[in-house]
Design brief:
The protein has 241 residues and is mainly alpha-helical. It is built from ten helices and no strands. It has two domains: 35 residues, no CATH class; 166 residues, no CATH class.
Length: 241
């Protein structure tokens, strides 16, 4: 085929126009015969198969690309759901620990669980029992935080430090509550309480306990909600498949 085209090209003068060149080729019976033979003998099946193979390669490439994108989307969707669930569990655990009501049954169960020996005559009996209740309650926060850390590690693999940085305020809420609970328990000792500042105690009790009928009046609760919202803002877009 290529040799036939070369032969026809050699019959065309170098300075000919496209129209002149076409006329020269078609007016030459030999060239017309060669073109006819070329058209009739051309392997169209091979050309079609070549185009077909190229089309299949393109379809396979885009199919693989789409599959990978869908797989990544599903992985991110599942992780986002698990992560938000763990964040909400930690939030709820913080709310639970801050409940201001301590029933006699809860106190008795906490003392029994921790195997604490306590006498009603002990002047620090209230301090000891409150410490026991908070210690048992805090187990919910420990469990929730451990579960969240697992999902956070996977999120770091997929999304770098975006989620890790967003979780920092929530972890700071946990540390702040822990610190103030311990100080509150220390201040249950009458001797220690004498040396503590009254205004600081008032602020501390507002962190340790949720005394408010209206959640909008509870500043620490609002801080926790804001911390949760930071994570939700980053994670929720991945819940759209």
């Amino acid at each position: 085929m290529i040799e036939t085209v070369k032969v026809m090209a050699d019959t065309i003068p170098q300075d000919s126009t496209i129209y002149d060149s076409l006329s020269l080729v078609l007016n030459d019976k030999t060239n017309v015969s060669s073109l006819t033979s070329l058209i009739l003998n051309f392997d169209y099946a091979k050309l079609f198969q070549t185009f077909k193979d190229i089309a299949l390669i393109i379809i396979a490439f885009w199919g693989l690309k789409t599959w990978r994108r869908q797989l990544k989307g599903k992985t991110e969707y599942k992780l986002a759901r698990r992560l938000l669930k763990r964040v909400h569990e930690l939030r709820d655990a913080l709310f639970y620990v801050r409940m201001p009501f301590f029933s006699p049954e809860e106190t008795a169960n906490a003392i029994k669980e921790l195997e604490i020996q306590i006498s009603e005559k002990d002047k620090n009996s209230r301090q000891i029992s409150m410490k026991a209740v908070f210690q048992v309650r805090w187990n919910k926060i420990n469990d929730a935080q451990s579960n969240l850390k697992v999902e956070e590690l996977e999120a770091e693999v997929l999304w770098d430090l975006e989620v890790t940085n967003a979780l920092k305020p929530l972890y700071e809420n946990v540390r702040e509550l822990f610190k103030n609970i311990n100080l509150y328990i220390l201040e249950l000792d009458p001797e220690y309480r004498k040396s503590s500042d009254k205004e600081e105690r008032k602020v501390r009790e507002g962190i340790v306990f949720s005394f408010y009928d209206n959640p909008e009046d509870d500043e620490f609760r609002k801080n926790i909600q804001k911390s949760v919202a930071l994570v939700e803002k980053i994670v929720k877009p991945y819940l759209k498949l």
